[in-house]
Specification:
This protein is mostly beta strands and about 290 residues long. Helix content is about 0%, strand content about 40%. It has a 5-stranded mixed beta sheet with strand order 10-19-16-12-13, with no helix packed on it.
Amino acid sequence: MNLDCGPDSMTLVWTETRAQANTSLFRLGSCFPTSLSAREAVFTVDFSDCSFSRMVTGDKLTYTNDLMYVSPPDSPIPSFTRPVACVYDRPKDWFPVIYEPVFDTYGRGDLVFDIGLMNGNFSGPAESASFPLGSMIPIMASVVQKSHQPLLLLLEECVAASTPELQPESSVYPIITNKGCLTDSKVSRTKFEPRLKSSEIHLLLQAFKFAEGEEVFLHCRLVAWDPDSLDHTRKACHYDQQQGWELLDDPANSHLCDCCESSCRSRKTRNTSAGKHEQKAILGPLTITVKS
């Protein structure tokens, strides 16, 4: 295990030598790997994510978590857990938080999030949830605003899974990672469609080889922001085979997508979650069929 502790984030690389191991079954706390290969699981994450624990003892500040491998019942490799810790000198200006309010933004207040399968031109709902391998799956996500100022809807993360609830043993396929990077577009015709409304986002997802003939569920995190606050962590980026990474909402500022090849973190020092509205959503089941 190779661990690189940054000021407010960390990168963990687990290199697996056993051929029978499935690197997609690694979890860091509540997080899935940010990138995978046959032998490596990589996590590049902020301490505010993945259910890290923060502990201050004396003059030390420690962030802790667990790296877990949850093995399926028929696997020859047993499940295991490894502790992960990043230790720092306690900041001189740090004091315990007496009260820090926590807001439940899951469908609360006057914002209503929605995600659904659409027909080919996004004019109405899809007539079927079955898609041949290689065909395009039109997906629309939206947020309905009542009294809010106009908001920009983004898909911060999406993974396909074989289960309606994400479990450590779930088989997963990453689609959108790294705060809005449409990683699947690097290896397929998947792309974002031009926006018609800031409160909607249209995704054309090419049906991929995953859980063939079985039910597939898309697990996404929808976020709504002030439309004028795009940065490295508030964006929708897809990969154009000719141009490279492109920012959906302002191609002239596609440099905000450069971090899609590494780790996307805000360069601002203020509270980057202020004004953020989010909801986790599940789309499915749908099936991907292969001609025999």
